Amino acid sequence: MIPVMEFRQFTEQQPAFRVLKPWWDVFTDYLSVIMLMIGVFGCTLQVMQDKIICLPQRIPGNVSEVEMSSLLHLESNTSAVLKEMSGRKTNLDLQQYTFINQMCYEKALHWYAKYFPYLVLIHTLVFMVCSNFWFKFPGSSSKIEHFISMLSKCFDSPWTTRALSEVSGENPEEKDQKKSSTSRSSTGVSPEEGSLEKTQSLRSIPEKIVVDQPPASVLDKKEGEQAKALFEKVKKFRLHVEEGDILYLMYVRQTVFKVFKFLLIIAYNSSLVNQVRNRVRCEVEIQDMTGYKYFQCNHTMAHLFSKLSYCYLCLVAVYGLTSLYTSYWLFYRSLKEYSFEYVRQETGINDIPDVKNDFAFMLHMIDQYDPLYSKRFAVFLSEVSENKLKQLNLNHEWTAEKLRQKLQINSNNRLELQLFMLPGLPDTVFELTELQSLKLEIINNVTIPASISQLEGLQELSLYQCSLKLHTTATSFLKENLKVLRVKFDDNRELPNWMYGLRNLEELYLIGSLSPDASKNIVLESLREMKCLKTLYFKSNLTKIPQSIVDVSSHLQRLYLHSDGTKLVMLNNLKKMTNLIDLEIVHCDLERIPHAIFSLTNLQELDLKENNLRSIEEIVSFQHLRKLTCLKLWHNGIMYIPEHIKKLSSLERLYFSHNKIEILPSHLFLCHKLRYLDLSNNDIRFIPPEIGVLQSLQYFSVTCNKLENLPDELFFCKKLKTLKLGKNSLSVLSPKIAFLALLTYLELKGNHFECLPQELGSCRALKRSGLIVEDAMFETLPSDVKDQMKAE
Asked: Where is the composition biased (Low complexity) (predicted)?
């Protein structure tokens, strides 16, 4: 007999695939096995036993001469003692009977009776192959293997248990305690009795087994990394599988095929099952070999085959009804969409996304096996869960001790921690209670928890291209404690809304690029709540001053506007900022000095760097700004300095570097309070002798000009500490340099000097490090002067 195990290869599959076999597939598999046994049993009987037994049939009126002579012979011998045989003699031998059986089997027996077991076997194998075809087809089997592999890892991952226990608000240990207390109360056992029973049961356990186990919810670093890799695999697998629906189509097609095959089998079997009979009349033209034409045959297995066929039809009917139910399930349910609504409600993880196409179909199939798989798998679709895991791994990597090693003192003399391109913000940051400044660069999904309130000394926060979320307690803390905020953004929509409520903020720095449309219509929410704001720095491609800046005009003292070359117009709002003491309008493509500036009577410093100024005739209006001490007009295209400059008598620092000035007016030096004068990188050829009037001058730079000589009056400015004369055409340095006893820095490099005057020795404060000159030129000094400069 053929063993059924020989057909295992038609349905063989990985054991893990059972999770994708709903109850109807399992049921039909068992039905297929029973039908297969029927087919194998019938085929075995066909092979091992005689199929048909035939005898010749006498037809009345058609008796042969041989038969007639035998009859006469019998009648003549009626007087014989006894008859030696009974029945009718046919005079056929065994070979003739075998031949007759074979001929009648082929000619007279109905084909259904002959091939019934083979049909059962073939149909059953087709059913078995069809039921598992989607597990074998290359386009679908690879997806299924990846899905099952990830599903098992997600199901067994410690992170899944931790995430589900966290959202339920209980630890696994607490749940066990609740269950135990519930069972005790239901059975009427008191806690004391329960503890006694527990103690007694523990005594029976060997001591080596009773050890302290770490909590199930605690992940080590390795498990955290494995869970992180799982998140990435699930994310990529989802993107890949949701693109198509090949799994769904394969399953639908094989189900529809089984239904049609069921209908076909029922149709032809029902009509042909009656053809399986015991007695079969056979008529074959073999008279020349046997002497007979008609035979009566007995189909030896007809009775058994008839019973098997009816049994087979019943099994096929059950199989078909199950397939019809499967078809109903496929076509009347939305299997290409899967909602995790029940998981979201049960677990509280509200960001689990719904899925579609093949991903959704496989999850529907999993639910037929065990819905717990989908629930645990959903944890790895949640962005919140992924962020929590990243946070956990981040805390493992960045310990408080490691963070303390990165602490530095910043330019504001605050203890600062700078973090760059991390996947998140470690919770260990909030253990650094000594922290005063926190700088975060290119960190996405930053969440500031309530524990930031532990950083009582935190006063400065810098966010460079970071997306930040705040806990309610954290927002309240920052409102009360934060003094300095720096935000670098790419879109004004990235500006945090909580920023506008920082009522104790003193300095606000906003840096970012805006789209052309946004730069024209930029809208900042009201800064009215920032009652303590004194410094506002705005660097962006602005075309006008935002109206919200006016809200803080009453107490704003420093305003810095950088528009990155975009032309800034409509500066009338500046008139309302009467308390400004420091104003920078840098790289704003200004062609004239804005008239609104002349209304700022409290202004002390003005910087118009990197604009397109060519004429500064309006400078005469600066005489109304009696507190103006610093004027920076550097990096422009100014051709000359008007004589009105003399009216700015309060100036102490003046920057005219990187312009196109050729002539210095003598009126410039009537600003007798000047302590700092920078005229470098111009086309100046001559310095008026009136420079000697500047008795307060401490810094003077004419580097990169076209000077050929220096007036002796320059050396009457005896308070000079820094003198820059490099990259000119000077050939002689006056011995009167000796008058500059306070000189500490002298730049002479890039001129045409032949030697240096020995009077440099009188500049006692000048050392070699402060003398910028060619080495060969330094060697022309007397040795005692060189030794003096080299001495510390």
From this structure: 180-190
The pLDDT score that the predictor gives to residue 459 is 93
User: In the numeric block, which tokens belong to residue 753?
Assistant: 């000097």
Tell whether 778 and 693 lie within a shared domain. Answer: yes
Q: How far apart are CA 195 and CA 766, in angstroms?
A: 88
Please indicate, yes or no, whether residues 658 and 745 belong to a single structural domain of this protein. Answer: yes
Residues 660 and 747 in one domain: yes
Calpha distance 472→457 (Å, rounded): 19
- Structural domain contains residue 321: yes
Extended beta strands in 169-315, E state: 279-283, 294-299
Q: How many residues does the chain have?
A: 792
CATH number of the domain that residue 432 is part of = 3.80.10.10
Residue 80 within any structural domain of the chain = no
Report how far residue 777's alpha carbon sits from residue 785's, in angstroms, rounded to the nearest whole number.
Answer: 13
Cα distance between the two ends of the chain: 110
Q: Where are the alpha helices (DSSP H) in 132-213?
A: 133-136, 138-156, 158-167, 172-187, 191-203
The pLDDT-based confidence of 209 (bands split at 50, 70, 90) is very low
DSSP lists the bridge partners of residue 440 as 419, 463
Residue that finishes a domain, picked among 533, 559, 577: 533
The two three-digit tokens of residue 286, written as one number: 């073999």
CATH of the domain at 259: 1.20.1440.80
In a 13 Å sphere around the CA of 136, the CA atoms on its Cβ side amount to 12
Spatial distance between the Cα atoms of 36 and 316, rounded to a whole number of angstroms? 12
> Are residues 303 and 413 located together in one domain of the fold?
no
Pairing of strands 337-338, 355-356: antiparallel
> Token pair for residue 474?
């954290």
CB of 297 closer than 8 Å to CB of 54: yes
Cα 47 from chain centre: 64
Residue 270 lies in a domain: yes
Same domain, 325 and 430: no
Domains in the chain: how many in total? Answer: 3
| Residue range(s) defining the domain that contains residue 107 | 4-57+92-136+248-334
| Structure token digits, residue 126 | 């087709």
Per residue in 460-511, pLDDT tens? 999 998 888 888 899 999 999 999 999 998 877 778 888 888 989 999 999 9
- pTM to 2 decimals? 0.66
- Tokens 């000094």 locate to 781
**Long-range contacts of range 132-140, CB-CB < 8 Å, 24 or more positions apart?**
132/10, 132/11, 132/13, 133/250, 133/254, 134/247, 134/250, 134/251, 134/254, 135/13, 135/14, 135/17, 135/20, 136/13, 137/250, 139/246, 139/250, 140/246, 140/247, 140/250
Q: Is 743 exposed, middle or buried (0-12, 13-18, 19+ CB in 10 A)?
A: buried
Residues 273 and 407 in one domain: no
DSSP per-residue string spanning 527-568: -TT-TT--EEEEES--SS--GGGGGGTTT--EEEEE-TTPPP
- pLDDT of 86 reads 56
For residue 344, what are its two tokens? 């979201």
Last residue of a domain, one of 283, 299, 334: 334
Q: Same domain for 278 and 415?
A: no
